[in-house]
Amino acid sequence: MTFNKFWNSEGYDIIDLELTDAEINGINDDVTNILALENKTIQSDHYQYTQWPRLFEAWKKSRNIANLCMNEKILRRLENWYMKKAFPFSTINFTGPSNQPLHSDCIHFHTIPERMMIGVWVALEDATIENGTLSVVPGSHDWDIYNYESLGLPHPDDIENGEEINYREYEKFIEHLVLIKKGKRTPVPVKKGEAIIWEANLLHGGTFTPHKDKTRKAQAIHYFFEGCSEYYHPMFSRPSEGKYAKKWCNENNNIRTYLEDIDGRI
């Protein structure tokens, strides 16, 4: 892998995507229109910490949202760093501050070999401390990776309301871990059209803001790299038993191939 020094030490970097106003406005307008639909997908309540809805997998309904996933500057940066081809598989569109506690994406998506996943968060308006920009714990990407099994939590399917109960316990653990390791939760202001890119295990979340009326428009995109033997959902897996809850995607089935299929049928 070929990283720059800042990425290697801090676990994240910021790049300017040089998006046009038309590209950004197209995404924001699509988000507004999709939110008005009855058949939209909003993230589960246990990921909801403010009144602002988090639009999940809207790439299926918006070409503008899907196209941002294939931004050449993002893909070039990822592939230059990892020397592997990346493919996007998930989006979340934010309309306002999330106030989300710290977490690692490795609890949500993971791979064998480990850490073959990247998160990207694109500001669709200026993201500041006042409107709840993203916060990170620099250097936490090098900490151990934790899942429910390693924390001694039951499989979420084995207990009532297991998804929410386990995730709250995980959030408490991460909060305690940051205190023990003396990590520093650091807000990262990001200008409209810029993207923050982070390594799979970097702890991140929303910057807590009392200004709950301020918008914070952004799109999160997650990428895997080709060549992994497993792309899986750690929350529902039992790695010690070799049991993996497979993600829907792989090298031949992802947002990139979805767009290629659409274009091939036009």
Quick structural gist:
The protein is of the alpha+beta class.
Looking at the structure, the CATH topology is Jelly Rolls
> Which structural class do you get from the secondary structure elements?
alpha+beta
Strand content: 15-25%
Our count of helices gives 6
Q: Strands of the biggest beta sheet: in what spatial order?
A: 1-8-5-10-3-2
Quickly give the CATH architecture: Sandwich
Average pLDDT: 95
CATH superfamily: q2cbj1_9rhob like domain
Give the termini separation: 38 Å
Q: CATH class, please?
A: Mainly Beta
Unreliably modeled segments: none
Overall domain count: 1
Could you spell the SSE succession in H and E letters? HEHEHHEEEEHEEEEEH
Counted beta strands: 11
Gyration radius, in Å: 18 Å
Question: Tags for this entry?
Answer:
alpha+beta; 6-stranded antiparallel sheet; 266 residues; Jelly Rolls; 3-stranded antiparallel sheet; globular
Outline the structure in words.
This protein has 266 residues and is an alpha+beta fold. The protein has one domain (5-265): q2cbj1_9rhob like domain (Jelly Rolls, Sandwich). The protein has helices spanning 5-10, 21-35, 63-69, 72-82, 162-180, 255-265; strands spanning 12-16, 54-56, 86-94, 110-112, 117-123, 134-136, 186-187, 194-199, 204-206, 218-225, 230-232. A 6-stranded antiparallel β-sheet has the order 1-8-5-10-3-2. The radius of gyration is 18 Å and the shape is globular. It starts with a helix and ends with a helix.
